[in-house]
Amino acid sequence: LTHDTVSENKTAKIGEIVEFKIMFDVPQLSIGSSDHTVWISDTMDSGLAIQTETISVKGIPLAGDETALTMGTDYAVNPDPALPGTEGSSFVVSFNNYESISDYAQIVITYSAEVTANAADTIADAVGIRNTAKLHYYTNGSPASPIEADVILYTYGIEVTKTGDNSEALSGATFKLYVDEGNGVQEDNIIEFMDT
User: Fold this and answer.
1) Which of 90, 106, 127, 192 is within CB 3.0–4.6 Å of 60 for a Cys-Cys bond?
2) pLDDT by residue (tens digit) across 28-81?
3) For residues 67-92, b (16+ Cβ closer than 10 Å) or e, as one string?
4) Exposure pattern of 101-128 as b/e (b: 16+ CB <10 Å)?
């Protein structure tokens, strides 16, 4: 089981949309077993908010091209009733029809999440925003011990104080800061701040 950002970049600003990728080897289970459900649970810190509509699932064979799987036929998102070990999860992807994935070597799940204002709480201690994926499945009718993988995203803060000629803070001063992306001052490059 691997869990990472698609870009492999581990930093993001508040308000940014980050794409993540979960990849796992398909467990080799007996087709004739009484229960061979496979499922992924993902739990994010409050600094991330899942965009459920972006969840995409593909199967990767040993040879050949990857294949997009179909929600509702090959997999379900946030199944009801909840599966074991998924309490408090941000989202769950389950493969109740094991035969629909048994011919693939690996499954890859991609999805997007927004970095929320709660991410500011991680700046002072540099603990990062944790995003944990777990692979679950049944073996001999009982849940196996889940396999887990984390990805930690970091966001940063800067303190900005505008002062006058006497180096005293200016009351009510307003100004804008922009990211220098080599294309001059563009409104798209403005840095947004929040009070802390």
Assistant:
1) 106
2) 887 665 567 899 999 999 999 999 999 999 999 999 899 999 999 999 999 988
3) eebeeeebbbbeeeeebeebeebbbb
4) bbebebbbbebbbbbbeebbebbeeeeb
How are the residues of the chain apportioned to helix, strand and coil, as percentages rounded to the nearest 5? 5, 40, 55
Nearest Cα to 120, choosing from 160, 159, 155? Answer: 155
DSSP state of 145: P
Name, in order, each residue with C-beta under 8 angstroms of 89's C-beta and a sequence gap of 6 or more: 41, 42, 43
Quote the pTM value.
0.82
Q: Are 43 and 50 within 8 A, CB to CB?
A: no
Pairwise CA distance, residues 132 & 152, whole Å: 9
List strand residue ranges (DSSP E) for the chain, in order: 2-5, 17-25, 38-44, 48-60, 67-68, 76-77, 91-95, 106-115, 129-139, 142-143, 147-153
CA 58/CA 101 separation, integer angstroms: 9
Cα separation of 172 and 112, whole Å?
37
Token reading at 189:
């490059």
pLDDT score recorded for residue 181: 67
Bridge partners, residue 137, by sequence: 38
